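Section 3.1: Structural characterization of target chains.
Under the original work plan, the team committed to producing a structural model for every single-chain target entering the pipeline before any wet-lab resources were allocated. The record below documents one such target. The sequence was received from the expression subgroup and is listed exactly as submitted; it comprises 316 residues.
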Amino acid sequence: MPQHPSEGTRRERPAVVLARAARILADAGLPSARTEAELLAAYVLAVPRGRLALADGFTDEQRARFEALVARRSRREPLQHLTGSTGFRHLELAVGPGVFVPRPETELLAGWGVERAAERVADGETPVVVDLCSGSGAIALSVAQEVPAARVVAVERAPAAVTWLRRNAATREAAGDRPIEVVTADVTAPDLLAELVGRVDVLLCNPPYVPLAVAVPPEVAGHDPAEAVFGGDDGLTVIRPVVRRAADLLRPGGAVGVEHDDTHGTSVPELLAADGRYTAITAHHDLVGRSRFATAFRRTDHRRPATGDTWQTGSS
């Protein structure tokens, strides 16, 4: 008997198809095989993942499409490339070849920046927020959505990534979020954003920071742009100039947050301290306890001591 409500169309129950797909993905070494199979099924069936059990089932065409996606995922093509989007905080962002797929741990840095910008709004200010190495625009667009009074500037160099950034910015603007400003530039340039020197309230950066010798997962090695992943021999090639330029751009009391490799839990705070223009330097951890980002504030006394401040460990 045909399954209601699609009478006259032969459909295969999702549970059967999902079980086969989960086995294929598990055999490919994916630790979250069942979850990823469900996410791909929900994408093909155009239903929320939580309603898969109530879905009609797969038509022959849908099953063929689903199985093709499962085969691609088993070859370690990123799940986000297959569905064309990824979630980040309260956003759904378009991603694909040529742009770094934002990771959940970066939501912590974005949240820290949202809080700092919101504090300025509470003080009656219109904060200027800069997102360096913006990629898909995840951090910049999150701030623009959650702190609509802020002026947000997103900086990205790679042409392919800028295309995705502009696409996401246009989508969010059409949805009613405050427009952001997109600047195509190299964040290591000594004259970066010269018109904003001394005027930035919050500067956030998720730079390429993986040391060159570190082995990365196949999804990263084969699909994320190398220039968005690797930060030179020690992973600090981009972070060093960003730390210097951020101190130029920030107003006195302005805040900076930089994501880094989990091996940089000491080195990045030390770079901030050694610069001499920062205070309240704090190391932060992600939800599983790995060193993830460092924050600091621009000195208000215009003093640049010979030795940097000591730094502390944060709770996030």
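The chain has ten helices and ten strands.
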